[in-house]
Every structure is written in C-alpha cells, then in structure tokens.
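Minutes, project check-in
Item: structure for the 294-residue chain
Input as provided by the requester:
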Amino acid sequence: MEMYQLKTFVTVAQEGHLTRASDSLHLSQPAVSAQIKSLEDELGVLLFDRTPKGMQLTPAGKLLLRQAENALAATRDIFTQAKLLKGEISGTVQLGTIAEPLSLKMGEFLNMAAVCYPQIAFHLNHGISGTIVSGIKSRKLDAGYILGTNEDEEIATLRLKNVRLYVTAPAAWKDRIEKTGWLEIVSLPWIVTPPGNIIQHLPQERAQHRKMKPDDDFHEITLEKLLAAGLGLSMLREEQAVAAELAGEVVLWRQLFCETPLSFLYLKERKNDPIIKAIVSVAKQVWGNSVDSG
C-alpha cells in the first residue's frame, strides 16, 4: 500500500466523483480509477459503489476512511517535525479570502509574512464564507477569512473585528425607501446570494421576494454591480456601501443595520503545524489587540 493510494482514496471520498477527484489530484480519470481498484484489490474489500451519480462509500469504505485520513495526517506530521528539526519553515499557503484586500489588511499581512517567514509563499483563493470553510475542512485551503459565525468544532477561529452591514438599494430607489419601514423593505425585491454567504442568514421572508440569484462564483463586486443596475435590495459592508453611495451608484437604508464578525480560520488539528503557527502569529501581529481566539 502506497501513501498516494490513500490520498486518492480520501480525495475521491471527499469529492464523491472521479472527475472532480482527478481534477483535484491533477491526474487523469483512468489513473484515479486504477489507483482505487488497486487499493481495493490489496485490501480485499470494496471501498466504493459506482453509481450514475458518482462514487459512494461502501460500509467498509466508511470505516476505513477515517484511518486513511489519520495515516495521511501522521505522514504530514513527520515532514513537519523534520522541518522543525532543520529549523526552517517553508512551503505554500493556500489562503481563502473574501471581500476586497484592504478590508482584510492583506497588504500588511503579506508584507509582514514576507519579512518574518520569507520561505513561505502565498496563493490567494477568493470566494465566499461557505466555500472558505469547506475548503479548510477538505484541506484545499490552509486558512482563510469569513464573515459570520463559525459553528464547526473542528475549525479554530480568530475573531478579528466586527463588520457592520447595511440594507442597500439602487440609487434610483432613494425616494422609494427613504421613509420606508421594515415591513415595506422586506416586501421589496431582494437579490439572494448563494448558500454560504452571510446575507443568506438574514430573515427568511426575504427569499419570497427574490428577483435574482447570482451563481455560486458570486463575489462582493458582483452584488454591488447588480444593486447599481437596479435589480433589487441586498446588504453590503458599511465601507463598501458608503463608497458606492458616494459614487452615486446606491443608497443606504440607515434605519437598521446588523453586525457580524470577520474571522480568520484554520483546522484545530493543525494548530501545531509550523506553517499554521507562522500565519496565525502574523495575523495576530497585524490585527493586534482586536484579535479574539475562539
């Protein structure tokens, strides 16, 4: 049994599909299928049921998956310890980002990381909070930022600051919403964001009045442009909303706002990983006394 076979097994289990697993592993689909078949032959059990909808774990596969994950984690720990013994911290960090870089202090973060840990390279992956959390859990991301509360007990949270969100409307709607109350606001057309975005957690009655639902590759700038185009109401971060209002693109409804935390996340089981320790220390230095560990 080879470690690459276990990695393929775990990846197929996570993705649930050979094509997606092959993309993640940068292998051809026949190569992934052959590795799974070879592992099944060696173990003498069937790990997956091949179905029209994808690869589903068998009862034996479910039992062996956790052990395979533990074996891979143990291997990573060996390499981590070796780096510690050599006194070097190097590698590439896959960092999940949301919003625009300025609000995350990305310039300060990357500059400080370059000074303190010059052998660590960073690859930024822009998304929404839900995809950041799932990416960290699947280890496609090493760490990342989210808006909202993290409820996953396997993920450690550094709360960086609170972010204020305002109901925001197209500029042409200024007279329409200026003296409008809450009940009238929720009855207007709303732009509903994809699952995993903080705006999805607003009162459910808004979903009944949706006018447009962006695709899952939604970014904040997309929402701002949809608002400016007059397609409905939504919520924006205060600094983003105010800037767009000053530009004449939107108008804020200031009778109500909500606050949500901006947090930095990573897997708890990786807390002793030198790279995780390094980037967490940088985040704490950048955000200073505002950081709250949770």
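Outcome recorded: The first helix runs from residue 3 to 15.
No further action items on this chain.
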